[in-house]
Write a structure and sequence with these properties.
Ubiquitin-like (UB roll), 3 helices, 12% strand, globular, binds FE2/S2 (inorganic) cluster
């Protein structure tokens, strides 16, 4: 049976989800299924039929990434401030 990881990468083309260990140890294949973080290398694709799946590509577009974006913007602002000529 196909793994969720393989379907995401090979059939859908979402290659941001990586295969590392392939044994559920490294987390390189992590995706969010119905709000739960799972290792997609361990999940048969049929098990998630009808579920909401968010990959790293989706995280980049989500509002929930706002705290990360805020930190990045603050860091960029600090860097810009320190680089400003006096
Ligand atoms: S590839 Fe390492 S946990 Fe899935």
């Amino acid at each position: 049976m196909a793994r969720l990881l393989d379907v995401l990468r090979e059939q859908i083309g979402l290659t941001g989800t990586k295969e590392g260990c392939g044994e559920g140890e490294c987390g390189a294949c992590s995706v969010i299924v119905n709000g739960e973080l799972v290792n997609s290398c361990l999940v048969p694709v049929l098990q998630v039929a009808g579920c909401e799946i968010v990959t790293v590509e989706g995280l980049a577009e989500m509002e929930s990434c706002t705290p990360c974006s805020r930190r990045s913007r603050k860091r960029a602002a600090r860097n810009a401030e320190s680089a400003r000529p006096e």
